[in-house]
Amino acid sequence: MISNSLQDNEIRPVVSLRRVSRTYGEGSGAVIALDGVSVDIRTGDFTAVMGPSGSGKSTLMNVAAGLDDVSEGDVVLGGAVLSQLGDDARTRLRRSQVGFVFQAFNLVPTLSVDENILLPFELAGRRVGAEERQWIDHLVHTLGLADRVTHRPSELSGGQQQRVAIARALASRPAVIFADEPTGNLDSRSSREVLTLLRTAAREYGQSIVMVSHDPVAASYADRILVIADGRLVGDHGPLSPQQIADLLIGFEVGAA
Ligand SMILES: Nc1ncnc2c1ncn2[C@@H]1O[C@H](COP(=O)(O)OP(=O)(O)OP(=O)(O)O)[C@@H](O)[C@H]1O
Which numbered atom of ligand 1 lies nearest the CA of 25? Predict the structure, then answer.
């Protein structure tokens, strides 16, 4: 059963989806990627979004982050209804409220580690204040990147590159970070480091994180696990073990067949 998360937590959710549908294409070729999804993403939670391939996970992330439009329903991010904002206002809101971590790291190859981490400030046309600089230095140290700040991404391991991407996402303290398969390209040791880091960011810094993943081990680090199948929200769980998550997903793969 899907719990009513508003009752579970009195703090305002960081993102709310209200009866959100997203259809791609038209007529007989139309694909319903999301079908009437309502969910509150709780502030300070590390939330995993799971489901079979093609179930709508990336679409959910893209509409929740304001990267894609909804066909029906509303997304409320940082107190604003995204569909009521023009493109510029939405871009500004995204820059100030949202951080991203992707499987492909998305670091700028010609910039150093430090410059990559500062990129969101550059894009927002903001100067880094003294307190922010302290926070970034703290992140760089905590993430074991202190002796790498002048290096280029190509000089780092995959795990180190992903840590830079996470430092960049955390640097401006966005309201929410969306991570799409953040450990997809990493070996198991680097994956564990990155997942521990995301969990620590939620627990110690109150950072809200939404992670899309196929991997039951990755999702076992989360506080909450949402399961999507055929564009619908079909499960909403507290922390589970990798085995419990794998069993859940097998149920949906079989159910969908
Ligand atoms: N731009 C698009 N145009 C047409 N169809 C799309 C588009 N984006 C997604 N879809 C379709 O919408 C459905 C949901 O796709 P989505 O990428 O959200 O699934 P997913 O759960 O993230 O899949 P995967 O785990 O394989 O990445 C799929 O059937 C997909 O083919």
Answer: 4
Predicted model pTM: 0.89
Q: What is the pLDDT of residues 24-36, one digit of tens each?
A: 999 999 999 999 9
pLDDT of the residue at 11: 74
Whether ligand 1 lies within 6 angstroms of the CB of 54 is answered as yes
If you take atom 26 of ligand 1, which residue's CA is the nearest one? 53
**For 121-134, what is each residue's pLDDT tens digit?**
988 888 999 999 99
CA 24 to ligand 1 centroid distance, Å:
9
Q: Is residue 149 part of a domain?
A: yes
Residue that has been written with the tokens 């992140």 in this structure? 139
Does the residue 3 lie in any domain?
A: no
* Domain contains 103: yes
Enclosing domain of residue 53:
43-69+85-256
The enclosing domain of 162 has a CATH number of 3.40.50.300
Residue 13 predicted with pLDDT over 80: yes
Query: Taking a C-beta distance cutoff of 8 angstroms, is the pair 80, 50 a contact?
Result: no
How many structural domains does the chain have?
1
pLDDT at site 74: 97
The answer to whether residue 48 sits within a structural domain is yes
Please state the ipTM of this predicted complex: 0.97
pLDDT above 80 (res 46):
yes
